[in-house]
Amino acid sequence: MSHPFDILMVPLQSLILLFTVYYFIIGFFGFWRRSEDKIMTPESTFAVIVAAHNESAVIGQLLENLKTLDYPDELYDIFVIADNCNDNTAEISRNAGVIVCERFNDTEKGKGFALEWMFNRLFEMDKKYDGIVVFDADNLVHPKFLLEMNNRLLKGDKVIQGYLDAKNPYDTWISGTFAIAFWVMDHVWHLAKTNIGLSSVLGGTGMCIAYDVLKRHGWGATCLTEDMEFTMKSLCEGIKTTWAQDAIVYDEKPLTFMQSWHQRQRWAQGQFDVARRFIPKMICEGFKQRDIRILDGCLHLFQPHFLLVSTFFVIISYVQLAFPPFYTNIYNFMPSELMTFIMVVQYVLPMAILLKVHAKPKAWLYLILYPVFIYSWIPIVFLGFLHRNEHEWSHTQHTRAMTYNEFIKDEKE
Q: Disulfide-capable partner of 286 in 84, 95, 294, 300 (CB 3.0 to 4.6 Å)?
């Protein structure tokens, strides 16, 4: 090594390079789909659960939507968890004709605890289901959602995540850039991984879990990112998460920067927490079971750490410009064409996805501010690391009320 600082900087740069190239290659597999003969005969029974905390502004539209899905009424039941509500969420839900379960708990707060409580109630019922589906109260759902989940269950999948679309992608530049980020992830992350046999990751809503798996292994996911916790718990048991591209759920994206900030900080805190508890176990299980899917799950958990490491490298690179070289920059030895190609594709990729999803012109204008959204992750992840041991749930207020028909009309205009 040419410089004393190389003992830190060379391994660090090698890690960044390998991580970047690994996901760069995976991303290309999200631009195609495996051909599939679908089973479109309804057979599976579903318990559809809506987790709601003070959601009176939006829950009525979702329940109206859920009651008109293209699936036999006798094959699914709708449950609403009115969790620590002090508004009329429960009343609206009862008037909609669904099963309402009210929960009050001053100590175990948050969606993960509410789901744990609801799942235990389901297990005590005489009626059994094939799959348990979870939605957030602010969602809208594609009419064929349960048909698509039925197809996946009948083909043997046990943990399934539906396509995470946006309900309000054109409201503000925040909701717009948030939607672009999700569209990109849907294709170059979830779809890509499923195409090559790796595991996707649960997204908290629009997810389906086989009843027998949930009953056998239990939920046990009560941290700030309960969806990721259950994903990794399942992976350790050899159960991957499958991506269902045509099972579409439309999620309300934050309207303001601060709403976006608080939500993403909660995600960052939760991911650091899950990483600390699961990475050692998953590394052992990955090598023990010789399962690349588990080791890939470790890399997913490592993402926020990677962002911190990359930021540190960038800062040190600028420091070195002001002083005589004090570490070896391995990127100087990389083919310049390769590095240029990777940099260009990172900026071209969102444009390709916007073409693929037939986004409106307004989304292309939001694309100008997309880098602001991406780079704002740096301070958010740093704060998430500092507060990683805090588990206080922060609720995101939802106000964008629209029916499914109104949503479809807006999409067509």
A: 294
Task: Tell if the pTM clears 0.70, that is, is over it.
Answer: yes
Q: How is residue 211 written in tokens?
A: 């009843």
Question: Each residue of 139-160: pLDDT tens digit?
Answer: 999 999 999 999 999 999 999 9
The CATH number of the domain holding residue 112 is 3.90.550.10
Rounded CA-CA distance 320/292 in Å is: 38
Can you tell me which residue has the tokens 């239990």?
218
Residue 234 — very low, low, confident or very high, per pLDDT cuts 50/70/90?
A: very high
Number of structural domains found in the chain: 1
Tokens 């005590």 -> residue: 124
Query: Any alpha helices (H) in 28-160, and if so which ranges?
Result: 59-66, 89-95, 111-124, 145-154
Report helix, strand or coil for 134.
Answer: strand
Please indicate, yes or no, if residue 344 is contained in any of the structural domains: no
Residue 58 and residue 250: Cα distance in Å, rounded? 13
Distances (CA, A) of 135 to 37, 141, 170: 27, 9, 22
Are the C-beta atoms of residues 253 and 179 closer than 8 Å to each other?
yes
Amino acid sitting at position 183? W
Cα(76)–Cα(45) distance, rounded to whole angstroms?
6
Amino acid of residue 19: F
Q: From CA 271, how far away is CA 311, in angstroms rounded?
A: 18
The two tokens of residue 304 are 């926020």
345 within some domain: no
The tokens of 223 are what? 């941290």
- How far CA 218 is from CA of 115, 206, 241, in Å, comes to 11, 19, 16
The C-alpha atoms of residue 115 and residue 109 are separated, in whole angstroms, by 11
How far, in whole angstroms, is CA 255 from its chain's centroid? 18
Q: How far apart are CA 96 and CA 90, in angstroms?
A: 10
Within a domain: residue 111? yes
- Which residue range(s) make up the domain with 136? 33-283
Instruction: For residue 78, tell me if it sits in a domain.
Output: yes
Q: How far apart are CA 232 and CA 286, in angstroms?
A: 12
